[in-house]
Amino acid sequence: MTTDSLVAVVDDDQSVRESLPDLLREFGFRSQAFSSAEEFLASECVSETRCLILDIAMPGMSGPDLQRELMLRRQQIPIVFITAHGDETVRPRVLEQGAVECLIKPFSDTALREAVNTAFG
Amino acid sequence: MDTELSRVVDAIPGLVWTAPPDGHIDFLNQRWCEYTNLGLGESYGRGWQRVVHPEDLSGLLERWRSILASGRAGEMEARLRRFDGEYRWFLFRASPMADASGHVVKWCGTSTDIEDRKRVEEALSAPWWLQPSTREQHFRSVADNIEALGALVTPAGQVELVNRQALEYFGVTLEELRGRAIADIVHPDDVPPVRAAWRQAVEAGRPYDVEERLRRADGVYRWFHTRGFPLRDTQGHILLWYLIKRDVDDLKRGETLLAGEKRLLEMVAGCHSMSEILEAICRLVESTASGCYCSVVLIDPSGMRVEHGAAPSLPASYMSACIGRPVNIDAGPCGMAAYLNEQVIAADLTTDIRWAEWRPMALAHGLQSCWSTPITSAAGKALGSFALYYSQPRTPTPLHQSLIEQFTHIARIAIERRLSEETLSKVRSELAHVARVQSLGVLTASIAHEVNQPLAGIITNASTCLRMLAAGPPNIDGARETARRTIRDGNRASEVIARLRALFSKKDATAESVNLNEATQEVIALSLSELQRARVTVRTEFADDLPTVTGDRVQLQQVILNLVLNASDAMRSVDDRPRKLVIGTERDGHDLVRLTVQDTGVGFDPQKQDKLFEAFYSTKSGGMGIGLSVSRSIIAGHRGRIWAAHNNGPGATFGFSIPCRSDCSSDMDDVSAIHTSGVTGDVHVMRKVG
After folding, report:
1. Fewer CB within 10 Å, N- or C-terminus of chain B?
2. In chain A, how long is the greatest CA-to-CA distance?
3. Taking the alpha carbons of B250, B251, B252, B255 in that order, is the dihedral positive or negative?
4. A22 interaction partners in chain B (CB closer than 8 Å)
5. Is the CB of residue B612 less than 8 Å from the CB of residue B604?
6. End-to-end CA distance of chain B
7. What's the pLDDT score for residue A116?
């Protein structure tokens, strides 16, 4: 893992967009936040993103929609899903679809770090 | 050279030499031979070079060549070996002699012994600690101007010098400090690790780094971060240790507090009970502001008396004497703070004249001061109060006030959450008198979503804050910003709870004027995240000129919520067409208004249409069949009708029609009566079935 790898955060919730990048930077990563899947896809960060922290439920394009879109574009970015719907059935479902991890909000800093480390293999 | 001149040259107190323009020495005076014990024959040409110190030779020759090339006078320094083998420093000076046309024909030079001057220079450039005469002066000029305690200590541990700050901190003279044992200075718990670290550092000669509590002149221990650096003599032996002790007590306290706050918020997020959270708040404040005791009292539902909240360290006999006291200005400071909705400070209970009955009881329990602060809801209403007690007369410091502010805030979140949970459970029982009602289960998920979003921000921000504070050096600005965000997200969470409370705060059915469009809009806002999760899009078709209805707003909203969630569930398995929900309102004839909820779901079995609104009939695998039957009884209570119909396309439409206000404004009490009997009747049916 290189410490200046880019970790992108896509979430429609503003407090997540403000807080997560700071914590990721404390971990030593570069981080950039986007308020929607569309905004992320339109950015120049897609190709250099090494890990994507992605909210599941968003207005417009959802997290899983973005996952499929990236697959179609052959962009193999490890994805850590995050969701505030604390439903036990969500996690196995998204892991089955190829996500690295699925964190239920609120999650601890160590859980996040482990998930990102897993993403970096 | 004539004899006379030769004698003069030999008598000069220095080494004299000459060389032709090529630089090879062709003359040396007698002093050279005496100093070096070399014969002239051995010295001419390059022979003289054998007495130059090997380390200096190449530099000297290089310099000599550049002087020759320049044709101008120049100087060089090098060590020359004396007859007895000792090298001494010499200054070589060379100057050219030119002919009439300006060409250099000869170089004349002297070499002077500068050993003594070199010694002085070296002595002056040696490290300050090697010079006992100026050591103290140097140490003071540096150490007295730093914001830390500084000391020079011998490897045996004996204090040699300390700075002014250290003497002030310990409140002693240097002589007294030298006489003290380590256990008189360092906190007893820290003595063994400090000793071990010191021994290790001295043995390895490596920098020393420990955290220790040091006793201040007034007996208070404060945390210090101590670093030690070895000062060595020219042979590399450690002569002294330079110790810097930086006060990190506030920093440590800040870290402990933040960690505690994070733990508390995790308790809130982790659904711990309110009393557990309130107890944890008390314990955290007690451990932070040493010597204090904390209590939280709540205002009972009547708003008249105080109830127990938490008081883990106060005597049970004291608390039981406080509980049940009225909320007013005379009964005690806690009731008074809640009553006035402002902070009450009793700095010295022995001289205070308020609370004639409570005060002797508090004094009898050894309490001499009490500061009570109201815990206020988002809407500004007092929920209870948070009190700090001391067994001495005291007034709050700014640190106390910031602690109080921080923790009354968390107490408020814990209490409001409990209140909203209580309200929720009351609504549940009112709705169906059974433990679980599915629509509210779904609603709970929706509430959890709304609250978990800001909690995620809170926990992430607090984690980041801790990391920023723990960094070396701590990122104070970053930590401050993340702490600010933590507070903002905390407020956001409590606003969500306040909104929910507003929706569920009513207990009894009431008859009021209700705008069905607005009521529906609120229901949609509340269930939006649930609908979003179910990938359902919502469209509203509200009539602009809809008359108001008379009824119970919350009960009607529960019916609408129920229809919306049912419609969403009916579309759960639909993947081949959009999951669309259309909610509409319109006039129905001249005296009714109608609300419809249309979905694109699986519809219902026409044969079972009659059963849809019966209790415990459900088309859903997880459903209990309560929602629609309760909805029907609520609508019946409003003298309306609820119905279901198939769409022309896929899906179904559910709706209800109730009379608008102009038609029933005369008998509002009647509506309430009918409504109540409707619910009772329905309960009766369900009890019979269950």
Report:
1. C
2. 35
3. positive
4. 460-461, 464, 478, 482
5. yes
6. 140
7. 94
CA distance B532 to chain A (A): 7
Interface test with B, best of A13, A24, A26 (most B CBs within 10 A): A26
- Beta pairing partners, B513: B550
**Angle A97-A100-A105 (CA atoms, 0-180°, nearest 5)?**
100
Spatial distance between the Cα atoms of B256 and B244, rounded to a whole number of angstroms = 24
* Whether the Cβ atoms of residue B190 and residue B213 lie closer than 8 Å to each other: yes
- B348: Cα within 13 Å, side-chain hemisphere: 3
Find the radius of gyration of the CA atoms of chain A: 13
- The chain B residue lying nearest A106, using CA atoms, is B456
A15 to B478: CB separation less than 8 angstroms, yes or no: no
Most A CBs within 10 Å, among B447, B461, B464, to test the A interface? B464
**Inter-chain CB proximity A85 and B532 less than 8 Å:** no
A39 inside 8 A of chain B by CB: no
Question: From CA B298, how far away is CA B415, in angstroms rounded?
Answer: 9
Residue (of B555, B523, B505) closest to B676 by Cα position: B555
In Å, what is the CA distance from B617 to each residue of A34, B124, B335, B601, B627? 46, 101, 51, 18, 10
* Residue position matching structure tokens 């293999």: A121
CB atoms within 10 A of CB B320: 10
Average pLDDT, chain B: 83
Sheet of B592-598: strand order equals: B537-541, B580-588, B592-598, B652-659, B641-646
Neighboring chain B residues of A107 at a CB cutoff of 8 Å: 456, 459
Q: What confidence category does residue B686 fall into, taking pLDDT thresholds of 50, 70 and 90?
A: very low
Query: Are the beta carbons of B214 and B186 closer than 8 angstroms?
Result: yes
pLDDT at B26 over 70: yes
Do residues B222 and B214 make contact, with C-beta atoms less than 8 angstroms apart?
A: yes
- Tens of pLDDT, residue by residue over A30-77, are 999 999 999 999 999 999 999 999 999 887 788 999 999 999 999 999
In angstroms, the separation between the Cα of residue A25 and the nearest Cα of chain B is 9
Chain-chain contact of A105 with B456 (C-beta, under 8 angstroms): yes
B113-144 residue pLDDT tens: 998 888 877 766 777 788 777 788 888 888 88
Residue scoring higher pLDDT (B630 or B186): B186
pLDDT of residue B209: 92
Which residues of chain B does A104 touch, with a Cβ-Cβ cutoff of 8 Å? Answer: 452
- Give the confidence band of A11 by pLDDT, cuts at 50, 70, 90: very high
- Chain B within 8 Å of A19 (Cβ-Cβ)? yes
Considering CB atoms only, which of A23, A57, A87 is closest to B460? A23
Q: What is the pLDDT of residues B233-262, one digit of tens each?
A: 877 889 899 999 999 888 888 788 888 888
- DSSP classification of residue B667: G
pLDDT tens digits, A74-83: 999 999 999 8
Q: Global pTM?
A: 0.38
Q: Is the pLDDT at B680 greater than 70, yes or no?
A: no
Chain A residue with Cα closest to B482: A19
Give the number of residues written for chain B: 690
Q: Is B73 helix (H, G, I), strand (E, B) or coil?
A: coil
> 């002014």: which residue's tokens?
B164
ipTM passes above 0.85: no
Amino acid at A96: E
pLDDT beyond 50 at B178: yes
Q: Nearest Cβ partner of B463 from A57, A105, A109? A: A109
Instruction: Provide the token pair at B510.
Output: 């009431």
Return the structure tokens found at A117.
């480390």
Tokens 């896809």 correspond to what residue? A41
Band the pLDDT of B621: cuts 50, 70, 90: very low
How much is the average pLDDT of B536-541? Answer: 92
